[in-house]
Amino acid sequence: MSEAYREAGVDIDAGEEVVSRIRQHVDRTRRPEVLGQLGGFGALFQMPRGYEDPVLVSGTDGVGTKLLIAQHMQSHRGIGIDLVAMCVNDIATLGAEPLFFLDYFATGKLKPAVAEDVVAGIAEGCVQSGCALIGGETAEMPGMYGPGHYDLAGFCVGVVERSKILDGRDVKSGMSLIGFPSTGLHSNGYSLARHICKGLDLREEHGFSKPLGEVLLEPTRIYVHLCQRLLKSGQIHALAHITGGGLTDNIVRVIPEGLGIEINSNSWPRPEVFDFLQSRGQVSDDDMYRTFNCGVGLVAVVDSDQAVEIAESEQGFVIGSVVDVPGVSWK
After folding, report:
1. Using 50, 70 and 90 to split pLDDT, how confident is the model at 125?
2. Residue 145 has what DSSP assignment?
3. Could you tell me the fold of the domain covering 3-164?
4. Domain spans of the chain?
5. Looking at the whole model, is its pTM more than 0.70?
6. How far apart are CA 89 and CA 59, in angstroms?
7. For 171-227, how does the pLDDT look when each residue is reduced to its tens digit (9 = 90+)?
8. Is the separation of the CB atoms in 263 and 139 below 8 Å?
9. Helix and strand counts by DSSP (H, E) for the chain
10. How far, in Å, CA of 246 to CA of 261, rounded?
11. Is 36's pLDDT higher than 90?
12. Which residues contact 222 (CB under 8 A, 6 or more apart)?
């Protein structure tokens, strides 16, 4: 390799080692529509068969400051799952089947074992959601990041039949909201969570059954197959992925203008991590619901006479309803 480039802080050999390490993980995600192999200048993917009027749906996201906890705990695989989840969950709410995923990994000093661990998590997320990891970029940029730090971004593409796009246009007053449990904070609200936990040893349990850092790093739940089952039933009018903005801001995004929602905050069990953060940080209820998912990672809008049956069959909870008054009200 170029000795001059190595002296400048970029190790091309390390980059090639990463490609060699991740190949086995990428192979786990392969779909029949993938054309070509890892390592080309571009990735090829043919449109799946069976669609009459296919519409492509895309999404992109990162993991935010949850990365800092992963780097502190030296636990990287779950972060890869998070990256995929934040993208595929978004497009699944439109009715899309995720097809393929690409990632961007940037760091100051490339450590092949860390990069492999992250990509192994990304591959696991792709396996869970049924999409192929078909490409990505590993960038080593000396001076851009502190020691041991890296950043991630992800991009996914899915497909949906035009006639089956889920856009909330059929939502009406009186319909019910079903909330589906999260696995914890998922990948939002970590700047506040880190501020609240400042000064605590994340390797200690602090009343939990495992170290606090592990609690905070619980990977984001992937809802793709749940969404597909709900959509196949024909009983769903809208889906909302609860991300930044929490329950307060996300559900109303799929509610038509002129309508609002009423939520019963006692209608689902809240994971103890949220009680811990609220108590320690003295956070108001309004701030909790606008920052965190508070235990509900996905919300479906359904006809009220079907709500209980759907909730019981998919282990969800009827958490509220659509009302004639715009905005969000709590009871």
Report:
1. very high
2. S
3. 60s Ribosomal Protein L30; Chain: A; (3.30.1330)
4. 3-164, 176-330
5. yes
6. 9
7. 999 999 999 999 999 999 999 999 999 999 999 999 999 999 999 999 999 999 999
8. no
9. 12, 12
10. 14
11. no
12. 81, 84, 85, 88, 89, 125, 128, 129
Tell me how far apart the alpha carbons of residues 77 and 70 are, in angstroms, rounded to a whole number.
9
Other Cβ atoms closer than 10 A to 75 = 16
Question: CB-based burial of residue 135 (10 Å sphere; 0-12 exposed, 13-18 middle, 19+ buried)?
Answer: buried
Residue 260 burial (C-beta neighbours within 10 Å; 0-12, 13-18, 19+): middle
CATH superfamily of 176-330: PurM-like C-terminal domain (3.90.650.10)
What three-state secondary structure class fits 231?
helix
CA distances from 237 to 17, 34, 127, 275, 312 (A): 47, 32, 27, 32, 18
Instruction: Please tell me the predicted confidence (pLDDT) of residue 299.
Output: 98
Q: How many residues does the chain have?
A: 331
Owner of token pair 């992963």 = 70
Residue 176 class from Cβ within 10 Å (0-12 exposed, 13-18 middle, 19+ buried)?
A: buried
Query: Is residue 254 a contact partner of residue 243, using CB atoms and an 8 Å limit?
Result: no
